[in-house]
Amino acid sequence: MAFTAILRRSASRAAPLAAQLIGAQRRNYYSAFSAVTRAAIAPHIRPGAAYFSGRHFSSGPSSADKKLLEILQSEVDCVVQSEDYGKDVDVPEDFPFTLQDNVGETTVTLTREYEGETITIEVSMPNLVTGEEDEDDDVENDEEGAGNESSVPLLVTVAKKNGPSLEFDVTAFPDEIRINALSLKNPETDDQLAYEGPDFLDLDENLQKAFHKYLEIRGIKPSTTNFLHEYMIEKDSREYLRWLKDVKKFVEA
Question: For the region Disordered, what residue ranges are annotated (predicted)?
Fold first, then answer.
């Protein structure tokens, strides 16, 4: 009986020890397995990358994307409802130019032939004045003589066959055309240091008026520039709307 009791006590003491040994072996096994697994996948993990279970991802747009799409659609609606979008711009009866307007470009090109000359006008997007500019900007504009009117930049080139051309940098305001600079371009040379004449405003006043008349008889006059002013404002709305829709389509994809 005493011997049996001794065996029972010994067995009871050995059981926890055996369990501890088995648990330790399991932990060592899983630790070794985890180390081997990490070593195997390490080359395929970018530094700093985080991996999550697939159940955390969604195929639909995020809340930020949804908000962006809502704002884009709201802006599309505003453009469509604006008075400038889709407005019919009447072409003047004496408009002498052929107008080329390519979708997606920020300029339109006018061309015409006049007494052996080729006249080209590159018309850029308008500089719009909305009345929301800062007071400092208004003071600066007044000092420069620009006032608070929207304007359209023009680059006018008068070219003769196989010869030089006169290039005018022009700003068109409503009912006013301002020549900012002019230069004589020679197609046979590209000398960046060539003398291009004085500043236009430094020319004699009579000479300035004569250059304005020179452009006027070639079709660069208020009736033309007023039409271009309205046309470019409407084009600006069209191009902006197209851009909004393209961005919205990209976010939705």
Answer: 129-149
